[in-house]
Structure formats: structure tokens, C-alpha cells
Amino acid sequence: MSAEPGTPSAPGSSTVPDPSAVSDPSAGEAISRDEVAHLARLARLAVTDEELDVFAGQLDVILGSVARVGEVAAEDIPPTSHAVPLQNVFRQDVRRPGLSQEQALSGAPAAEEGRFRVPRILGEEA
Amino acid sequence: MSTPTLIEFDDVVARFDPMLGLEVHVELSTNTKMFCGCPTEFGAEPNTQVCPTCLGMPGALPVVNRTAVESAIRIGLALNCSIAPWGRFARKNYFYPDMPKNFQTSQYDEPIAVDGWLDVELDDGTIVRVEIERAHMEEDTGKSLHVGGATGRIHGAEYSLLDYNRAGVPLIEIVTKMIPDTGARAPEVARAYVTQLRDLVKSLGVSDVRMDQGSMRCDVNLSLSPKGSGVLGTRSETKNVNSLRSVERAVRYEMSRHAGVLLDGGTVVQETRHFEEQSGSTRAGRIKETSEDYRYFPEPDLVPIAPTPEWVEELRGTLPELPWERRKRISAEWGLTAEELRDLVNAGALDLIEATVAAGAPAGEARSWWVAYLTQQANTAGVPLEELAITPAQVARVIELVTSGELNNKLARQVVDGVLAGEGSPDEVVESRGLKVVSDDGALIAAVDEALAAQPDVAEKIRGGKVAAAGAIVGAVMKATKGQADAKRVRELIIERCG
User: What burial letters (b/e) apply to B420-459, b meaning 16+ CB within 10 Å?
Assistant: First the structure.
């Protein structure tokens, strides 16, 4: 799974998932301020206290609106994840030309030794 | 960080029951990646096996590799799993640059294979049934190189360099249920399970399962429960366990460490740990994120996979004879003891001998060549037996030439040397090196007469009935013919000429 086992946030766990969602729209408030702060931290966004208030309010409205879909969904309609009724769309295991190293790196802000160069990742957890 | 208190292994098992779980990742050896047509070769120049899809560029769309799905189903079936009739991929979101998409496409709560088992045989013949919770499909991540840190590790690094050649290579993750009641044998069970899983996957031909190259990787989950209490402890997950021996060592170390924490009155932290090969110890990594932090949701760009029963049965029909069944059969056929069989397996010779037998050689001779002369050559060259530059069919041909009397054993070894040196097939080496038993009696008689004339005293003894003395003449004739004579025939001729 992870190329660098144990690096922060790299996919590591395969514990059988606990499908508890981030928000529960049925409970008055669709998303709490704490949840927004948590999501911001997961995305490494530096959000100020004032911004948290603003975003929590805005996200609450958005989630509340989307949650109204649940009001019209009947018992016999399963949650929809895909808009088109297709399944088993496969590709043969045949190679296709990709990008050259130069092309691959051409849009990168920084590159070195044929690799993408990114800022050090840990910072806050190191 | 303080040095952990380690408890003697015997004390650990006297006071605690180890609860063991293993997660094994197998990189498939498909021609292309899981969701795009990029090659999957190991060791290519960085970022030369990439395309807009595996680089996560806007607008690029993934399409599932059919062969990878088939491999996943075959692995599931070989592990006695049920194959899910319907399932979706999911996005596992996390902040780390080893996936340029910013998420890993994986299977979450709808794995392709569930509820299987593998019967694992320990060295003394004990069978432990390991329950398989699930096997699911996902994609491998890119490789990071941390620059500026003292050890190439992320801590202390100034920046990181990313190679995405491996990003998107199909992975199958195989997760066991908790393996209870292994007691003192937990390390051995862990190793035996991974070994047997490796052999199984290898026999399916879906991965080269090289732990040293990372195409098979193991995470060890371990917790301790106070003996007989049934109360589950907090588990640690140890990564970077890159050899079979390390699997065993990691389990043993974590058992001693957990016991140290618990007997000191402490609490085990749920965390990821890294196994360190040199010291055989583990060190703390990150505190584990909870699964909701990954914000899984169904992958909208990939449609569900719904294997039909016909497809699954067709794939079941392609399963080979399982490695342990095959070993049992071969043991019986060749009349091997359990130890002899284990030696052959450990030497990596079993497949080679079987292939040699399949190419027409008698089992005894095939075995003898591979475990004696060829093993010596492999040791001298410092390569695994299977990497010697000779095929089982070529060995079978050499054996055939010996059986037919065209080569004697000494010449046969020279032929093998020639093949190993890249001089061509056995027949080509025989031809080019002029290695043939001299079967022309005329030439041999001349050599025998010459040798008898050169050693008249020996000749006299033979004539006097001391047949044992003929050895000296045989030696002389062999020398004169550069070893290319059939010693048995030479001896016959000597007796004849002295008669």
C-alpha cells in the first residue's frame, strides 16, 4: 500500500473500515465547527478562527441543501454512486504509450534527478 | 525516546496470549498498471512509466485492467474466499505526495474476495488454519526519496523527490483475521503463513513475490491479551518487514515489547512501527489515523465490478495444483522423506528438478545434478539456483547423453560448464569443445596397448590375475584420451588385451 510505510497520512491501514461519516445531516447542524477544523487539518489548510466560523456556516448550508435529497429518496431506492447503469468496463492488459520523463516533469514547479521535487512533508508532525 | 523494556520470550508466553494479524501486499506482474496502460517494470528510469492517468492530470480517466481483476479473483479463490458478486472502488484521501491524484484508488467496504482460509503447515507438520478476512484490489504508490536527512528517512529531510513509475501498479492486499491461540509459536506461524502465501501466489503466476524487491510486503499486527482473559489488547502495526526471517523476528520483538509496556503498568499505543533489519527491533512511526480521516467515498470514475458466476468458475478452472499438494505428490512419486523434501524446497531445487523430470530425465539423476554439481556452481557464482544459465531441459539433455554413453560424468560436467559459460546448448558445447566419449574401440585399443607397454610391471600383474591392478592402466588411458573414454569399456579392453 504505502511506498514509505508509516509516513504520515500515507495509506497504511486496512483495518476494516468504520463507515461513520464526517457529518450526520439528520442532526440539526450538518457540520460542526470542530469538524471543519479537523477537515482543514487533514488537508493541511491553515484556517483562522474567523474563517472557521464563516466556512462552518457556509458548509452547513450546502450540506443541509444536499441532505434534502434524502427527504425524497424512497426506501426502495439505493444510494446512487454512479449516474450510468454500467458495470464491468475493462481494459485489456496491453501497454500504451505514455509520457516521456521530460513531458511528465514539464508542468512541475520543481524537479531534480528526473523526479518531482516537493517540500518536506512532515513539518508539523516531525 | 526511551529504550523499551523487553521481556524474555518465555515469560511473555507464560503471561500473555499473542493475537496476531497479517496484512500482505502483493504487487501483480501484469504488463500494465491497474488503471492505465503504463508498463510496470521494476527499476526503470524515474518517471518514464507514467501517463496523464497515473499522474492524476485533470480530465484523465482510469479504466480497470481486466487481467488484474482476474488475478485478484484467482488469488481469492486459491485462498478459499467467496468472490463478491458486485463491488466498487473507493477513493482513499490523504495528504501525502506519493500519489499525485491526492488519493489512492482502493477497495473499501466492498472487497472482491472475503472469508477464506489457508491451512499453514509448520515445520513439525502441525497445521494451523489461518482465516482470511479479505483480499482487495488497489494501486501501489510512487516512491519517495528524502533529501537532506541523515538517513534518507523523512525525519530531518529538507525536501522529497518523487518517482511515479510505481504509482498505479496493481496491488492485492490480503488481510487475515486475528490468528488466536498460537502462543509461543506466533512468530513461527507468522513466518509459515507468509511463506506459504508466497508459494501460493507464485504458483498462480500472478506476481514474482520478491520480498527483497518489494513485490511482496508484509505488515505485522500484534497485540497481547493477559493469559486466558480473552481481553483484547491494543495493537501495533509493524511495517517494513521485508523478508521471511524478518516476519518472525518482528513478531517476537513486538511480543517482548508489548509485554514490557504492560508489565510496567503502561498502555500500548496504537501506532505504526517500523521494523529495523539490523537490530531486529521496531521504532515508533506515526499515530494511526482513524479510517474516517481517509474520507473514503465510491470512485465515480470507475464503474462497479460484477464478476459473473461463469467468469469466476472459468477462473477457478485455471487454478494450478497447489504447491503443498504438488509437494506431497512429488514426495510420493520420488520416494522422499519429509527432510529430503524440505531440503529440496529450501534449496529452491524442487521446481527445477520437476521440470527436468518433465523434460524426460529420471528423477534420481535430475535430483543429483541439481543438488550436487549445479548447487555447487550456483554457490560459487553467488546466485540462486534458479538463476543459473542452464535450463531444466538442458540438464535433461546432458543426462540423456550420459545415459546413452555419449558422455561420461566428467565430460558431462564440462558440458554443463560450457552451457553455464554461455557457449550454447549441450549439443553445441559437445560439438565445439569436442567432448565425446571415445567409443571407437580401435583408438582405445591403441591407447591401452601403449599404456600396457609403458608399464610392463603392471601389465605383468594383470596377466598374473591381479585384475585390481588394471586401475593404473585405466588412469593412463583416460589421461591419454583426455578423459573422453568410457572407463568401463577401457577396463574390459585391458582385461581382454592381457588375457
Answer: beeeebbeebbeeeebebbeeeeebbebbeebbeebeebb
Residue B498 is classified by DSSP as H
Q: Which residues 285-324 of B have a C-beta within 8 angstroms of A? A: 285-286, 288-296, 298, 300, 302-307
Alpha-helical segments (H) within B294-386: 309-316, 323-334, 338-346, 350-358, 363-368, 375-381
State whether residue B219 sits within 8 Å of chain A by CB: yes
**Among A residues 58-97, those touching chain B with beta carbons less than 8 Å apart:** 81-82, 84, 86-97
Taken as a whole, chain B contains a residue count of: 499
pLDDT digits (tens, 9 = 90+) for B98-146: 999 999 999 999 999 999 999 999 988 899 999 999 999 999 999 988 8
What's the confidence (pLDDT) of residue A6? 35
Interface confidence, given as ipTM, is 0.75
- Helix H, strand E, coil C: the string for B439-485 is CCHHHHHHHHHHHHHHCHHHHHHHHCCCHHHHHHHHHHHHHHCCCCE
Residue B307: all three cell numbers together: 464478476
Question: What pLDDT is stored for residue A5 in this prediction?
Answer: 36
The pLDDT of B404-413, averaged and rounded, is 86
Cβ neighbours of residue B202 under 8 Å, at least 6 residues apart?
Answer: B208, B209, B323
Model confidence, pTM: 0.78
Closest residue in chain A to residue B288, using alpha carbons only? A13
Whole-number Å distance between alpha carbons of B221 and B68: 27
Say whether residue B342 is in contact with chain A using an 8 A CB cutoff: no
CA B303 – CA B445 distance, rounded (Å)? 82
Q: Residues of B numbered 178-207 whose beta carbons fall under 8 angstroms of chain A's beta carbons: which are they?
A: none
Q: Measured between CB atoms, does B25 come within 8 Å of chain A?
A: yes
Structure confidence by residue, pLDDT tens digits, B264-294: 999 998 888 999 989 999 998 766 556 668 9
Across the A:B interface, residue pairs with CB atoms under 8 Å apart total 231
Average pLDDT, chain B: 91
Strands (E), A28-73: none
Distance CA A37, CA B25 (A): 34
The Cα B203–Cα B319 span in angstroms is 9
Could you report the per-residue pLDDT of A4-57, keeping only the tens digit for each?
333 333 343 433 333 444 444 444 577 889 999 998 988 889 999 999 999 999
Write the class of the CATH domain B441-497: mainly alpha
* Helix/strand/coil for B387: helix
